Amino acid sequence: MRVLLSIACFLLYSLPCFSQFKVDKIVFHGTGAFSSRELEGFLSLPHGSQVQEDSIEIYLNGVVDSLAAHDYLFAAADSFRVVTRKQKSILNIYLRDGGLSTVSNVLWHGDSLSVPSNVVARALTMPGRTFRWSNLAYDTKLLLDYFETSGYPFARVEIERLEPDTHDKTIEIWLHVKSGPQTRVEFVSFSGNRHSKDRFLQRETRLRSGELYDQRKLDAARRHLTHLDFIRRVDKEKLVVNNDGKTGVRFDLEEAKSTRLDIAAGYQPASENRSGTFSGLANIEFLNLFGVGRRGRIYWNRPNQRIQSVEVSYEEPWVLKQPLSVRLDFNQRIEDTLYVIRKAGLRVKTDLTGNLSIWGAASREETLVDSASEARSGFADNQTTYLETGLSFDTRDHFTNPRGGVYFSSFASRGWRKRQHGFGTARAGSYRLQCGGIDSEANLEFLPFWIASLSLHARALDSDEPEILLPDLYRLGGARTLRGYREEQFLGSRIGWSTAEIRYWLGPASRVQAFLDAGSAYRKQLSVTKTVFKMATGVGLRLETGLGIWGFDYGIGEEDNLLSGKIHVSLLSSF
Question: Which of 2.50.20.10, 3.40.50.10800, 3.10.20.310, 3.30.950.10 would CATH assign to domain 184-255?
Answer without folding.
Answer: 3.10.20.310
